[in-house]
Design brief:
The termini are far apart. The protein is 39% helix and 8% strand. It contains five helices and four strands; from the N terminus they run ββαββαααα. The longest helix is centred in the C-terminal third of the chain and has 13 residues. It is globular, with a radius of gyration of 16 Å. By secondary structure, the chain is α/β, with parallel strands linked by helices.
Length: 133
């Protein structure tokens, strides 16, 4: 059986870190690109991928450095990984929004300068993502 050591998930509308959990099963994955996905703009995205899929050597066409691996382990070892993944929702259940979430949503709507931006925000909110997180 041939096992691919590279994958391109560019532009697949991956929203949250929890969407990347499955990467942990790809133990031979060496090259991965997830560019042009909303998740790539999330804080600690790169560290999360490096921690979740330690076999990756090149992420988004940039070589993974040993210092990044150390940082990823510090960030996501144990409870912190579960907390990062927990920023998702279960389809069909109401999304719980904190006052900070509501303010982030209001600010994102106020800053939107085109109909395309409004549509993007609507898609994010419908998927359970909070703008700015």
């Amino acid at each position: 059986a041939v096992v691919s050591t590279q994958s391109t998930g560019t532009g697949n509308c991956l929203e949250g870190l929890a969407d990347l959990r499955g990467l942990s099963k790809l133990s031979r994955l060496k090259y991965l690109s997830l560019m042009r996905n909303p998740v790539a703009a999330k804080p600690h995205y790169r560290s999360y991928v490096i921690y979740t899929c330690p076999s990756v050597r090149v992420l988004d066409y940039k070589r993974v450095r040993e210092q990044e691996r150390v940082t990823a382990r510090k960030l996501f070892a144990g409870k912190k990984k579960a907390e990062a993944e927990a920023k998702t929702f279960t389809p069909g259940e109401p999304v719980k929004q904190t006052p900070a979430d509501k303010e982030a949503i209001k600010a994102a709507i106020a800053k939107a300068s085109s109909l395309d931006e409004i549509r993007r925000l609507e898609m994010m909110l419908n998927s359970g993502a909070i703008p700015g997180f």
